[in-house]
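In the laboratory, one determines a bound structure by crystallizing the protein with its ligand and collecting diffraction data. In a computational setting the workflow is compressed into a single prediction: the sequence and the ligand go in, and a structural description comes out. We illustrate the idea with pyridoxal-5'-phosphate.
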Amino acid sequence: MKMMPYGKQAIEEDDVQAVVGALKSDYLTTGPKVAEFEGALASYVGAKHAVAVNSGTSALDIAVGALGLPVGSEIITTPFTFVATANCALYNNCKPVFADIDKRTYNIDPEQIRKKVTKKTKAIIYVDYAGQPCDIAEIRDIAEEKGLFLIEDACHALGAEYRGKKVGSFADMTVFSFHPVKHITTGEGGAVATEDAELYGKLKLLRNHGIDKTPGERAGYLYDMKMLGRNYRITDLQCALGISQLRKIEKFIGRREEIAKEYGDALGSTDGITIPYVKSGVRHAWHLYTILLDKRINRDGFFGKMREKGIGVNVHYIPAYKFTYYKQFGINPEDFPNTEEVYSRIITLPMFPGMEGADVERVVAAVKGLV
Ligand SMILES: Cc1ncc(COP(=O)(O)O)c(C=O)c1O
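The predicted complex, in structure-token form:
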């Protein structure tokens, strides 16, 4: 039996043709498709600028890099995320400092952020978990009061809205991922959106070794290396796919919304299950659909039985401080009671635009049969 994945790309014939077109063009990388994709993305999320790179992780890395923070600066973030969110602080000689999550939304709790601010704190990276925007106004208040930079990790939240506006211009920089399980894909890929011209300039440098001119921009052979950058360039093939995918983003999110509603209607009143809580004033982008199991249900047993039925459930996320590498920082899990509790009970159900009604019904029946 083929396992139903928890997430999957939706590639159609127009996407294939878009990539073929780029393959047959003069540019495989650093060509016109990159700027075209960046323009389309910036316009969709309502940002002035966007810089596309080869992954969401690279996007996080250059976002922190563009801030030019002193060694040892503290960056407050959530432990309930993919490790890349915290790792980007370490890449840039900064220290990730975790703040516990809100029990209902699983997003970082602004009150907990407040408690973690020290003289060394320079930035906050907040993650819109599963596609639900954080309490952005509260987080912005803290940043303004304490003089901190904000990075929004919106890798789950392309197309999500907060108070009627798309995420993309609330923080100093907003980061997206185009991994195949995300809302749109470029195979691997990511981007940083910003309103700030200076940050935009630095992001472009950092993507390309810190070099100020691409070969196409040089009059002669001269160029300068102004910062210690990397090669995080994305190809024109990927950007051609990204442009084609972005045209269909609303259709993709619309299907995710339908699936979320079907799950909610079917499981909302099922004993032993808590469905996701959606705050008022947000548009959830439904990257993930998670349920919380009652304490009497063994999550790992449930996970194994769902997998036996061919349903590729997952767990998002193992808290970052639990990993071997993070043990060196001596973080006490007891300091994160909400993260610990949610982690022990949460499970991710399949959610992707290609899911059909029968797939949703199959997942629902399997869940109901196990609780
Ligand atoms: C919250 C979050 N941040 C960052 C990333 C990293 O993105 P990428 O896989 O494109 O490097 C992911 C990817 O899963 C993510 O979920």
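The first helix runs from residue 13 to 23. Keep in mind that any predicted model is a hypothesis to be tested, not a measurement.
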